[in-house]
Amino acid sequence: MTVKQPKYSKEEFARRGDEIYTAKIRSQVEPANNGKIVAIDIETGAFEVAEDIVNASEQLLDKYPDAQTWFIRIGHPAVYHFGSSRLKTL
Q: Is pTM beyond 0.70 here?
């Protein structure tokens, strides 16, 4: 199995992905798909929406096998949330 190497730095991936989402995709997918994942090919602007990263990625890669994929969770600032959403008091 060949491992695909990224063509861009992490910063460039993020810049391109966020720019494409904001300019071309957001208005097509929000708010009806809140919480779903968008997989975006940062080179072509092609995208797929699914319930999770695996399905979004598979759908995009089926159509664009060489996609440089950036993920965004619709309506949220990050794909994943780390840490507790509630602070515990001792």
A: yes
